[in-house]
Fold these 3 entries.
Entry 1:
Amino acid sequence: MSMGFDKETFKKSVIYNVKNVFRKTIDEATPEQAFQAVAYAVKDVIIDEWIATHKEYEKQDAKTLYYLSMEFLMGRALGNNIINIMALPEVKEVLDELGFDLNAIEDQEPDPALGNGGLGRLAACFLDSLATLGYPAYGCGIRYRYGMFKQKIENGYQMEVPDDWLKNGYPFEVRRAEYATEVKFGGYVRTVWEDGREHFVQEGYQSVRAVPYDMPIVGYGNNVVNTLRIWDAEAINTFSLDSFDKGDYQKAVEQENLAKTIVEVLYPNDNHYAGKELRLKQQYFFISASVQRAVKKYMEKHEDIHKFFEKTVFQLNDTHPTVAVPELMRILLDEFNLTWDEAWAVTTKTCAYTNHTIMSEALEKWPIELFSRLLPRIYQIVEEINRRFVEQIQQMYPGNQDKIRKMAIIYDGQVRMANLAIVGGFSVNGVARLHTEILKKEELRDFYEMMPQKFNNKTNGITQRRFLLHGNPLLAEWVTGKIGSEWITNLPHIHRLAVYADDPKCQQEFMDIKYQNKVRLAKYIKEHNGIDVDPRSIFDVQVKRLHEYKRQLMNILHVIYLYNQLKDNPNLDMIPRTFIFGAKAAAGYKRAKLTIKLINSVADVINNDKSIDGKIKVVFIEDYKVSNAEIIFAAADVSEQISTASKEASGTGNMKFMLNGALTLGTMDGANVEIVEEVGAENAFIFGMTSDEVIGYENKGGYNPMEIFNNNYQIRRVLMQLINGYFAPQDPELFRDIYNSLLNTQSSDRADTYFILKDFPSYAEAQQRIDQAYRNETWWAKAAILNVACSGKFTSDRTIEEYVNDIWHLEKVKVEIEANQ
Ligand code: 73E
């Protein structure tokens, strides 16, 4: 139990909060009010450790990591925090005594969804691991007024509903007005001579006040509480309406609007760059505030800014925070008067960059016009960084224009953020072994040749505290019963389960737990979708953002193909299957939204077809998010990880399924490669082209899907059903675009860009193997247990230790708390 936790104090605190905040007695409190009261009581326990942690960091003058990210997909905090202060049994008892159920109270919390998908969730897992391992770290991001939209499905179509997550107030955040700071946009730069050198002054700008809100990140059972600092924007000057100066008035209104719009909403694009001006404003806003604050904090304890990098490291979560490079340069040059070389030495020893994708549509390139208008001083600095870097290229590769064309930071009227991030930092890492190899060999080949020492791999990981201990309590307890609780902070220890994989009793216990988790999910589906699913069927799950490269389309086409077989032969011998989908599509991504409609239309036809005797069910889970993900992973038998090889940098859902004992049906892509390496190919279902084959075809300009269409009747039949009204009798043309995307070259893309038809036969064959394998319950249980047992590598604790050893060089800090203070 947590040292700072006392049951009676906690109980009083809950009752007091209900009274003080809501003017109610505890028996009158609504579930939402009870949630708030409990959350404040938990926060009260956390606060002491939070203060103690930061005192300890100060005392030890510890080097600090700033994890800079546009996204933190935190998910609910209450349950996680209770677990991490190690007070779960006591809190349950107290709530029981007060007549509340913890699960029901947890369900009242909105998911803070300040992220899109894997990239944002990775940041959240990293914060959990950093705190649990005791490393001094801040997450720095944006306090979006509206996070990831809520998804409603109406008539099979996705509708986006604003996510007003702050409407009742969020109990875990603390406003820190004392750390507010000014961020400037636009205007122009005036050069003045002073003390024999040039000085640069930004004038005629607009500005906003950045105000931080802190959220506690509770380490597991170690008294460490780190901070997620998210910045809100406020208008800088309250102006008087009777102002006679029209110019001032105009400007004041504009600044007020700027403050309002800047943090209004998270851009809902995953793996896609839209090039919007407001997005660049968001980036500079949170980066300038975070970097200014990091510098101020450093100067409170140190004299010499030249040694800033000894106490500070900035990790850039993709290119979105890359303006940190020129912003740090600006502060060092303009505010500390360092020379260029001095400032550059500090900056390039402070910044490190993680690449998360090779999808070309995700590459950030800002038009010079926009960039220089919005950030005039920053642009000057980027120009100088570029000038010097191009000089360096010319020295290394005399006369080689091609190298400049490929590597220059400013080229063709655009500022290329990846190039800036690579040049401005000391480390470039990919997020799985295959991904890093592709970066070195293909996408970033020239940079790798020029500066190989910067490149390194950090295979992603996930936190077992949320995705097993919290999300799957039955399995967590079973594991602990077998091998003890060490796995909670040392996941490789879970390999000790392997000896039970062959034990029939353990297999039975394991399958019973899986069954109960399937019942829990079936109940969720019944409540939220009104569909009955049979927990004895195979739960075959694909949950992730909707994107063509992730190939949800291949999955649903295969469902149609199976359905056709069943229609032809109603006695077809197959294990009943429930195909479960969950996915949000970016609001402007037409084809992705149409794919959601297709999945729902297919579901409608199949689920209502009595003739197939419930052998196939198709479920689209509305509003896939962290809180229901925990329930879904726990209940899965089959984990669909079917991206076109080379396209999914890592994937992290694949790891969450594995940890919960689902078998992977996947391509040799991203971290799937390493998953298969750990668990053995015989305990997974691997299919499809390799990344080398895919890249080979791409270099040849693709392949001809018409050959497959002409020669494979079953595939042709499925494709024809897309355009003959089979799933859309009211509008037979509805799915024409999807049909065209697979067969037609008239659009600007290659036909079947993601090799869906090419991989289809091999995918169908792998699905067939699953059907066969599931019949042997002993085999399946063994393979599932082995998946859990071999998941040790994929803890984010391991990933963080690797970042610390190779990039960040932080030291662990211990925090002692006296009992009942
Ligand atoms: O493969 C995943 C990876 O596991 C990758 O697609 C995702 O990052 C995960 C964590 O490393 C990702 N998201 C984005 N790029 N890669 C992205 C790009 C632009 C906007 C938002 C997200």
Entry 2:
Amino acid sequence: MAHIQLRNIKKHYGQTEVLKGIDLEINDREFVTFVGPSGCGKSTLLRMISGLEEPSSGTIFIDGEDVTREAPADRGIAMVFQSYALYPQMTVWENMAFALNIDKQPKDKVKEKVELAGKMLKLDHLFDRLPKALSGGQRQRVAIGRAIVRNPKLFLFDEPLSNLDAELRVDMRIQIAELHRSLSASMVYVTHDQVEAMTLADKIVVLRDGRIEQVGAPLDLYYHP
Ligand code: ADP
Ligand code: ADP
């Protein structure tokens, strides 16, 4: 269950106002994509939701609770970035188990969660590999696996596929859509790729110059970048 409400979110860096009053609702289990020209504020808005940065003003509610000043770790959110940021000296298994071990979860629980995520992401034959021995798509799947094992109620993706070649992007897009169907989580997904935005989203948010220009279901929008 994750229901997100953004109320009049503004963000400025020095004199520059990057977000100019964002009001947005993300429903439980909804898949929302953020699109818009480079520099329009997509990543900044994602960082506000994640808690990596605080807005200059405005309020963020998750499941009715004001989390505007809460740390990222307290929001039940997982972020997946385009740079995979895997630990290079750890195997796939260790990368995926790491956060759970830090959290002192029981060994059998950790095993169960990593095995399940490994199956979902077709990584189970790669558990003993180091990241350097993986393809780009496999690394991206490990990054998603690390997020999944923590059962987040909300996933934030910041252009997760933009480093992959065209064919892999299509594969991964299908896998992310499958994950969304099988996990009971909401997803917010920033992308430059119009096809990704259209095929994944329940709702597309078009940003322009720090404001929401349009919001709607893919078929109700005509998006021209
Ligand atoms: P997008 O993700 O849509 O490409 P960003 O959210 O990354 O856009 O950036 C929006 C604007 O905010 C850009 O003009 C960018 O230069 C500016 N910006 C982002 N982060 C900072 C920062 N930490 N300090 C100053 N300006 C920033
Ligand atoms: P430790 O460092 O205490 O040995 P590990 O993280 O290596 O802990 O292993 C914890 C559990 O995870 C063990 O029960 C082991 O069976 C399982 N495990 C570790 N690596 C793998 C793997 N590559 N494939 C399947 N299970 C694994």
Entry 3:
Amino acid sequence: MARKVLVLADVRDNSFRNVSFEAIAAGKKVANGGEVVSVVLGENVSGLTSELFYYGADRVITVENSSLKEYTPDAYSQALLQVIDAETPDAVFMGHTAVGKDLAPRIAMKKQSGLISDAIELEAVGEEVIFTRPIYSGKAFEKKVVTDGMILATIRPNNIPPLDKDESRTGEVKALDVEIKDLRTIIKEVVRKSTGGVDLSEAKIIVSGGRGVKSEEGFKKLYELADVLGAAVGASRGACDADYCDYALQIGQTGKVVTPDLYIALGISGAIQHVAGMSNSKCIVAVNKDPEASIFSIADYGIVGDLFEVLPLLIEEFKKE
Ligand code: FAD
């Protein structure tokens, strides 16, 4: 069955987050010979669209409006609903990002559709689309089968590989005018917290620190290792609560959910609420001075030792690479 799949691109600082391309790849899996239409909402975004074709979009729709410059739930949902009404897609996908998590339920409510949230895999089998998603804080996975109605899903970053980049691909770009009115949320100022160069939720490598790092000063060493590896820095809530770092770095049940290729946990005990946010990392390396620490039960590689001795050795070794 051929389907038309609308994929919302996630724009940040004038470029697309990788999950935009991963969601296009997800769209391709269910389009089944139909088309994948990428939607870009924002202000001055029409110059960005070529990359969406490189990663597989068949068509692009841009919606430019000054009230779409920054994400607000009411402006974005009004704009996306109008694109959905104009295109009548069989499926709508977006990243399971801060934007996607907030926007998708609003779209589901307005369109009276279901919502598959946080999908990590999907396949189309005949009339059915089968999604896999984590449950019980990542301890188990469930399959959800969607057979009718508009399929709405958010796709977890770093799980579905994007298609190979092909710079010869191009396609039609259409600008759509939408009416955005009665806004209840107006952004007056955006204050960005700097959490280092690499975006935590999309990072391939994360160096993460816990209460064992002991101070803000200790976290500086983590940044040094992260710099050498091209990694992002993350943290447990223990470290955030102790004021060693900003809450923007928190990984876990009430923080960010990450799926990097490599997760290095330093001085983190492995509480269930932390593990909920990182257990699906492809390779977990734990450094902890307590051999009984529960982080070792999920680690692929464990180093029992003082992180302040291990960290300089790791930095030195990786610098040689
Ligand atoms: P600790 O548990 O204190 O562990 C510190 C570890 O460092 C110990 O294992 C110790 O052996 C080791 N260590 C100490 N010194 C050294 C050294 N020199 N070298 C090597 N190792 C050393 N937590 C999260 O992380 N994310 C969440 O999203 C989250 N959400 C929560 C939601 C709820 C509702 C609740 C109740 C809790 C939540 N928590 C969350 C908190 C969670 O339960 C833990 O308290 C927290 O994860 C502990 O952080 P930690 O591992 O850094 O600290």
